[in-house]
Amino acid sequence: MSSRVALPAAPARESLADSVHASLLTWLMDGGAAPGSPLSIDGLARDLGVSPTPVREALVRMESTGLVERAAMRGYRVAGMLSREEIDQLMDARLLLECHNVALAAQRVEEDLLVRLSATVERMAVAPRGPSFADYRDYHQADNEFHRLLNRAGGNGFLADAFEGLNGQLQRFRLRALGQGVTDADLAVAEHVAVVDALRVRDGDAAAARMREHLEAVRSRALDDRAAAGLDAAPEPAP
């Protein structure tokens, strides 16, 4: 494990497990270990100066997001970047859930929701954008909160829970920002504002259309990022 990993001083209200999770998340999102690299619980614990228990708990949490993978008898390893096909599948699933949920939310929207959504958009607009995860963490937390608020606001608990299961994969999706920071913040902020504007007039069809436009744009930008990084290049033939 890289010497760059250090356990930050935990606020009094934050548990050791949360601090360890935050440290490991930052390390992984900043490319501290290559995709496929094994992760030793004991080694990570030594580097962080903690017992293996909070490290194990952190890795279990990260497994649910797809950032790490666990194989029987082999332990944990860093997951690979999402492929083009996986990005397409993830965005297809988000389109099905989020467009429907935002249309439901428009039927029952209250001023408190609009205030909270607008606050998350403002946080996105002013948050640092990179290049390290520590820099753009606040941006992505605000982005995540925006989508969680909307999916809960639809009032269908089963659909909201389905989004939460899908939402876990977003950390892995965001590895596309590796070394770049957030490159599409201004576009994303404008797209979020358009969704809120449609909700403000309680137009479910317009809200769903604006969400679809946003998610399709996110898909397009993610695939463009992969191509620009050379991740879609055909492997060279073996000599």
C-alpha termini separation: 33 Å
Number of strand elements: 3
User: Under the CATH scheme, which architecture of the largest domain would be assigned?
Assistant: Up-down Bundle
Q: Shape, please?
A: globular
Organism: Kineococcus radiotolerans
Domain HTH gntR-type: 14-81
Pfam families: FCD (PF07729), GntR (PF00392)
Protein name: DNA-binding GntR family transcriptional regulator
Protein model, in words:
The chain contains ten helices and three strands; from the N terminus they run H-E-H-H-E-E-H-H-H-H-H-H-H. The protein is mainly alpha-helical and 239 residues long. It has two domains: 63 residues, Orthogonal Bundle (Arc Repressor Mutant, subunit A); 145 residues, Up-down Bundle (Four Helix Bundle (Hemerythrin (Met), subunit A)), CATH 1.20.120. A three-stranded antiparallel sheet has the order 1-3-2. A hairpin with a 3-residue loop joins strand 2 and strand 3. Helix 6 packs antiparallel against helix 7. About 2% of the residues have low confidence. This is DNA-binding GntR family transcriptional regulator. InterPro entries: GntR_C (IPR011711), TF_FadR/GntR_C (IPR008920), Tscrpt_reg_HTH_GntR (IPR000524), WH-like_DNA-bd_sf (IPR036388), WH_DNA-bd_sf (IPR036390). Pfam families: FCD, GntR.
